Amino acid sequence: MSTDDFDVTAVTLKATTYGVISFLVLFNLVVLAFIFSVSFMPPSEFFGAPHIIPQNPTLDAWTSGFEELQDNLVNSFLIGLGTTVVALAISIPGAYAFARKEFYGKRAGFYAIISAMMFPYILLVIPIMDLWNDLGLYNTIPGMIIAYQVFVTPFAIWILRDFFAKLPTDIEEAAQVYGCTQFTAFLRVILPLATPGIVAVGFLAFLTGWNDFLFANLLTTGTGPVPAVPVLYGTIGGGSGERVYWGKLMAETLIIGTPPTILYLVARNYLENAFTV
Amino acid sequence: MTALEDATTEETDQTADATDSVASSETDSSDSSGGHIRLEGVRKTFDGGDIVACDDVNISMDGGEFVVLVGPSGCGKTTTLRCIAGLEEPDGGRIVVDGEDITGLKSKDRDLAFVFQSIALFPHMSVRKNIRFGLDMKTDLSKAEKRERVESAAETLGLEETLDRKPAALSGGQQQRVSLGRAMVMEPAAFLLDEPFSALDANLRDHMRVEVKKIQRRLETAMVFVTHDQEEAMTLGDKIVVMNDGYVQQIGTPYEIYNEPANRFVADFIGSPSPNLVECTVERTASGVTFASDFCRIPATDEQAAAVQDGQTVVYGIRPEYLSMRDDGGQFTARLDVVEPLGDRDAIHLTSGDTSLSAVTPQGEVSRDRNEVSVAMQTDEAWLFDEHGERIV
Fold it and tell me: Domains in chain A: how many in total?
C-alpha cells in the first residue's frame, strides 16, 4: 500500500467511530459482566473487595432468586401477554380505520389519542386505583392489562397507522377485484404485509406489561397477582436501607431480563424491518 | 347471474358448480357473445360534488371488442374504468354487463378482471399464488384445474420459470405479465386495463402492446383499455372512446376518429404531428366561398360552402399529410422552420403569417436548405369547426 493513499480525515473519522463504539460497548459489557459475576458470588465475596471472577462460585442466589420469583414471573407473563393481545385487538382495527377510512372527527380523534401519550402517567395512578376499586379490577391481572392500555394503545395505533397508510391502496383494491370483501382483503393482504409493524408493536406492548414498575406496584397488593418487577424492588429492600443481597438482586435481574431478550431474538428480523425507513 | 348462465356454453363440464357466475363465464367458447358492457349516463363526482370526474358517459361495448378509453390526464377515463370495475360507485347512471345491471354490485361480485397501472401484485405471495389468487377467492375449481389454468396462463405469458419466485425478484415487464396472468386465469367477461404499460420502458411497451392484442384476439374477450397515449389507442383499439373534461367526445373506430373527428378537441388530440387548425372568416362572394385567414384565402369545396354563412368565424382543420410542398402554384407561401425526420417521412414545421403549421412529406422530399416553400392544401380533406369547436363539415 502506498503512503499516498493515507487520508488523515478518513482515518481520524474511522478511529473516532471505533473509539465511540468501543466505549459504548464496554460501558454496557463491563456492567453486565459484573451483574453476571456477582450473581454467582456468596455474600462474603460481594461485600469484599470488588473483583470480576468469583472465587467461590455458588448457585445460591439463583436458586433462592428463582424460588422467590416463580409465581410472580407467571403473573408477569400473563400480564405481558394479555397486554399484547388486548393492545393488538384494539390498535390493529383502530389504526386501520385511521389510516384508510374517512369518518367524522378523524383528525381530532387521532390527536386526542396521541395526546393521551403525553400525559405523565403517574397522574393517572390515583384515579385508576380509585376506579379499579369500584369496578373490582384492583389487584387483578385483567385490571393490570386494561390499565396498561392507557399508554400502550395510543403508541400502537400511532405506529400501525403509519404502517397501514404506507401500504398501497391498489393492492387492497386488487384483492377486492379478485374476490375479497374489504374485510377479507384486510386479512389476506394487509395483515400479512403489516406483520413487521404488528410484531414490533406486540413486542413493545409485552415489554411494557413485563417491565412496568409503577402500575405493577400500585395496582397490586402482596396478596394479589404481583408481577416480578416489584419483587425486585423488595429485594433491594424496598428503600428501607437494610442490607442488600446483591447476589440475589443480580440473579433476579438476569432472570427477569431473559424472557424479553429471547423474545427480541425471535422477533429481531421483524423489528428491524419495522423501524427502518 | 342468470344472464351469465343463459349465455354460457360450457364446452367442458369440469366446472363443478355451474351456478358459480365466475367459473362459468363463457369466454373460453369460440363465440364472443359475452362481455357486452353498456354504460348509461354514468356520472361520478369527488369531494362532495365539487369535482366532476366524469358525467353523462354513454358507451356500448360489444363482446370480444377491444375498446380504448383515451384522453389527457384528468379527463375521467380512469374513473370511468374504475366505475365499471366497481372500485368507484357512480353517483348516477347504470352499468350493465351482458344484460345484468351491476351498478350496485361489489367489485368481487362482478365478472371482470382489472389490471392496475401500478401492477399491484401481492408482494408476500409467490407468482403462482398471485396468479391463482382470484381462483382461490372466487371459484370452487379443484386444485388440478387451478394448477392447469395458472400454468397455461404462465406459458402464454412466458412466466413458467418464475412461478415460484416472489414478485420483487421479477423485472417490471415480468411483473406486469403476472398481473395480466392474474386476470387471464379468471376467464372474465371482460378485462379492464388501466394504463398497464405506463411503468415500462418504450421498447417493452411496444412489445407488451402486441402481446396484449394477440391475447385479446385469441381469448376473444372484451377488453377495456385506458391510456393517455393516442398512438397506443390507435394501434390497439377496435373502438376508441375519446374523453375530455369528464365527457365522452367521440366514439368510433381508429379510422373514424382519425379521419372524421367530431370536434376540435378530438382533431387536435389524435394524430402526430397535430393537425393544422386555423381560425378563418367565411367570405361569400359572387365567385364563390373562401376562408380567409391572416395568411391566405382558401377556396371552399361545394360541401363546405353549403354549410357556412358569410362572415362566420370557423376553424379550418387539416392534417399535416394533406399539405404538400411545391416549387410554385400553392395556395400560399410559408417559411420553412424545421425539418424533422420521422423515418420514412419528414415532419415539416412552417410559419406563415403568425401561424405555425406542420406538414408531413415523404423522406427527403423537401430540402432542409430551403427558406421558403409554396404550400398546397388538399381542401376536400379539410374539416370545419364552429366557434364552439363542434364539427360543421
Answer: 2
